[in-house]
Give the backbone structure.
Amino acid sequence: MDVNKLLQEPSNPSKFNELLKNAMDGFKIYCLILSAVKLGIFDVLKTSKSIDEIAKQLGYNKKLLYLFCEVLKSIDLLSKEGEKYRNSEIADEFLVSDSFFSQCIFVENTFENLKLWLKLPEILKNGEIKRNPSKFFADRVIHSLAQNTLLGELQKTVKIISNFEEFKRAKKLLDLGGGHGLYAIAFTALNKNLQAYVFDLPYVVGRTKEYIKKFNADRVDVIAGNFFVDNIGSGYDIVFSSYNPGGKRAELIPKIYASLNKNGLYVNKQFFGEAREFTLIDLEWNLWSFNIEKAEKAY
């Protein structure tokens, strides 16, 4: 090899180094938060504690635990007064397991998708990972989606819809593919005369019932089925659909139309990203599959 190559400078090393550093730092921060959630650090630090107290309660290496807490402090998830650590306001609200707005399940569930990226060479060669839909939805995704939708999207959505005159006079609502049922539950809280039904797959509605019970929503019920092939019922004043694949399938519109009362309202909340360039989430969307038809871009 020509020794003069040693004297030749690359064209743009700073851009490459920055790209790689940001990627690695992001992954490390995620692992830090995930580990803290799994260890129960934020549950322990709802009240102030020293490293000795934390180590004794959790049974972990004191030296490493000290460094761990210091880094959590550096990203504003912990605060420190004297020698004692305590959750920051954001950690108390989103990373304590029993907080109403807790995102602990969402944080842990995200790791399942990150693991796909670690298998990327294998998937590119052999094709997407096959997932069991019942286990995927009922055991993981429902609770993750339920937590994440509470970060403002549910509240904004139901507020918009509650201003429609059709909603104010509605007596019967269908939440099509409603999963956790939180939208249906919120709708009944805003309309005291409303009876709501959550339509979803048989292995999902069992989880829906858990949320109905949790919020004492006695005017919310479930219907088990597959809306692509099964009857979805009739006599609805409102049919609501949020981010489910049926919302982009034109062949379902006659079925939805037939289920509505005259002057009924169909609300379809979707993300239409077909015109944008492909992103990381689109590639991730195609790294796994089960028995539904999926477009190239994530819905």
